[in-house]
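Work Package 3 (structural annotation) set out to generate three-dimensional models for the target panel prioritized at the project kickoff. During this period the team completed the workflow that converts sequence records into discrete structure tokens, so that structures can be stored uniformly alongside our sequence database. As a representative example, we reproduce one entry of 523 residues exactly as it appears in the project archive.
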Amino acid sequence: METFFTLLPTALSFVAFFAAYTHHLHMFQLNSYHFDVEVKWMGKNMGQVLLLLLPGLLSALLTALLPSSFYLVWGIAATLILGGLALYLNYKKAVKKAKKPLVYTDRVKRMMVTSLALFALPTLLLVIFLGKWAVVYASAVIGLMPLYVLLVNFINKPVERAVRRRYINEAKALLAKNRGMKIIGITGSYGKTSVKYYLTELLSTNYNVLMTPENFNTPMGVVRTVREHLSPLHEIFVCEMGAKRRGEIKELCDLVHPQSGVITAVGPQHLETFGSQERVRKTKFELARALPRDGKVYLNADSPELMKEENKGNAVFYSLEGRGDYNGENIRTGENGTTFTLVHGDEREEFSTPLIGRHNVLNIVGAIAIAHDMGICYGDLKGAVRRLQGVPHRLQLIDNGRALIIDDAYNSNPAGAKAALETLSFFEGYRILVTPGMVELGAQMEERNKEFGKQAADCCDYAVLVGKRQAPPILEGLLEAGFPREKIFIAESFNEGIAHAYGLDTAGKRPVILLENDLPDNF
């Protein structure tokens, strides 16, 4: 009889399990499957952890203690509560429209199979032999879901290592077959994705080019690109290289063996995992050290932290401040794009692009330097620069009829945020900043966000701050710089912030809205 009464709460517990597991697996994926990063995330997001932990363990305890005549009602209620809370976590992400939704990769699918086996088999056995203890077990697992995800990852580690090794060997074999292909590595704290897109467009005027798509800048992202897209016709492989720890750029270089490279900048990115900018710099220069003796590394001479490196290798510099071998000068930015003069030795060439902002010009100059050194004439490069399209969410200009949007929602960092504010200041109209601030800056986060607020005070007419963590220091910076408090709004979510911006009275002026950063769901 007890087995029969246990079936309904057990069935409900499976719904709660899948909802809770999907949410926390998503967070683990956003944290790059790193144990220490996930543990830090749990510490910072204790509200999400306790939301399931306390009801889950309470449910397990009460179900274990209550007599059989009462536990059925409680079991049903408890599993409904847990399921509701777990679904609520996923609902919040659905409403927010996750910046990076859970991607059902092969690794995720393997984790889901293991997790289901660990949950379902004991639960069903307990239903048959020990009745209500199935509900006790299910409630405890749901309550401890963040730790359960880590346990599943630990169990799957041997399989993941074997799969990873096989895929890497396959990619290496494919790269070895294309011996004549030139490989260009691109890394940096910021700007690397933009340089990758621009360089690929410029090189494509003369060459058949493969690049790592979107944000595929991890070893397995590069491996996937090679295994799925590399062909014998490709003459150049432009490979973006990301890192959050020492040694990760070297690992990528050992995989693809670049002949030349670009380091776009060194800045306070991922300081929570690196610990210091010096470690960031050393990691980025793992690319330069991996190049052959005659391999050139192209360096942004305007990045002070990058220029601190003593052994820069066989370097070619690019700059907007006259410090480089290739320099961008006389920059004019407007709503229709940007024009600038490229100076290389005694050569002076005029370029125009539909892209906006000095930051984009710097990235374009870096791409021109590489393409020109690879034999593409300025005439061809001018046409390619005129055809450049904005990289999605990186100073991308969008006119949606209601407002002119400057979408800089990805990869906000102090230098990029400052450049975006300067770009906003060029536009005529009612200039509105919508931002949740910057993250992953370690101990510098509060100071950097406060400075960002001070910079924003001179560049916008209204500021919408999103969220509770970064808003206080930005607000403090704005007010210290004399920005009026009545022109600042603090929103709970990005959607609320955008809605508020659209509803502002702009006194007949066209609204120009800068979207500076949009935090992923693990923040």
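The mean pLDDT is 84.
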